[in-house]
């Protein structure tokens, strides 16, 4: 598998199999050798400092020990310095995501030194061999940063390493070996195979920088391994859509565009990069992630609190919080850019009424807002069934901003409206010995709502106080009412 996974080819800089003597190095093409664990890298790691948004332009190469390069490249030690580190590749070329990420960083941070770490010569091998090079590449980056500290008094707190897949662990080694503490490392779906479960010194970890944030987008296991690492390995670990199935990356979605099964995996793994690019480009609506102990609790809508730093922006806008290891955070996203959406926690007490002991309702909600209305949204109940005579909590996600929520329509799907409901009805009919079961009736008096993005809380009561009961094929409308959230008195 690792030897045949295809990578989308790009055409941004030179193919490293070409004649290296023609590259625009400052003085000559021979780099100082860095001996690490007995092997010299022989200049195989290159530091391409971008000066133009025209990605066809070659850029300028920094070389440790060559002061002329700093002046020629226009290196500004007082500005931010951002290193972008690619992962494993089989093509010998930069992948297409690199173009988008570099352009987005340069537009957002126009004064920054944006440096692409090019280690394709060692990444373009079988995956286990590329893994074995990560420590040496990290050492090489650390040596470059140490030299910049010596020559330019580079402030480490302004250094940000962004590593994708295998490049995230390269960034971890660089942070471990550098003299001092790097300001920030961002891991974009750090690679899982050969890193899952190993000790901290052999992978990206919170000690590698003052702040380590990680986006996990492909933690689904196949053949005993996960392409992206599953375990939390940063100060903050964000799992969009549970870190599992990313919207827009389903087999049907990808095959319709690419016609290649391997592109499904690439879509989910690479989604971390595109979420990060989105965070650089779309400042108007920043995506929020919410702290939670696990994806199942988040899907139930339990974890939408921002109290005590329990929520954060994702991607470039993630805020450093008090040092707290492995804080897991979750959010749902749209299938395409802009990826940000809107989360609502809904609580409703479902009263069992006539003949409804075995009711297994399929609910939908439609949200009416000041700016827009949603379509019917399926209420995903993660305990398997709606609880009767219980308060049910669930998560509703909308892709578009609807403005202030004004009204909610709760619908109970009819017995013939979907295959799911048809099957439920067949089962009920079978167990009632072919007699038509009586029409079940449930009652919902109010729905309490908390908006994740604004943290506002509202209560919605039945628009018609005499219409609070609902049966299959029916709906009840709820409007804002004065009944506030019940607040328990604090114990002294």
Topology (SSEs and partners):
Blueprint: E1 46-50, E2 60-62, H1 67-73, E3 81-85, H2 96-108, E4 113-118, H3 120-123, H4 127-152, E5 159-164, H5 166-177, E6 184-188, E7 211-215, E8 221-222, E9 225-226, E10 236-240, H6 251-257, H7 262-281, E11 288-291, H8 295-299, E12 311-313, E13 327-331, E14 342-352, E15 363-369, E16 377-378, E17 390-398, E18 405-412, H9 419-431, E19 442-451, E20 457-462, E21 469-470, E22 475-480
Helix pairs in contact: 2-7, 4-5
Subcellular location: Secreted
GO biological process, one term: lipid catabolic process
GO molecular function, one term: lipoprotein lipase activity
What does this structure look like?
The protein folds into two domains: 46-331, Rossmann fold; 342-428 and 437-480, PLAT/LH2 domain (Lipoxygenase-1, Sandwich), CATH 2.60.60. The longest helix is centred in the first third of the chain and has 26 residues, at 127-152. The strands form three sheets. An eleven-stranded mixed beta sheet has the order 2-1-4-3-5-6-7-10-13-11-12, sandwiched between helices. It has 492 residues and is an alpha+beta fold. The protein is built from nine helices and 22 strands.
Biggest sheet architecture: 11 strands, mixed
CATH superfamily of the largest domain: Alpha/Beta hydrolase fold, catalytic domain
Gyration radius, rounded: 27 Å
- Averaged pLDDT, please? 85
CATH level 1 class label of the largest domain: Alpha Beta
User: Count of DSSP E strands?
Assistant: 22
EC number: 3.1.1.3
Protein name: triacylglycerol lipase
Family: Belongs to the AB hydrolase superfamily. Lipase family.
Domain PLAT: 342-480
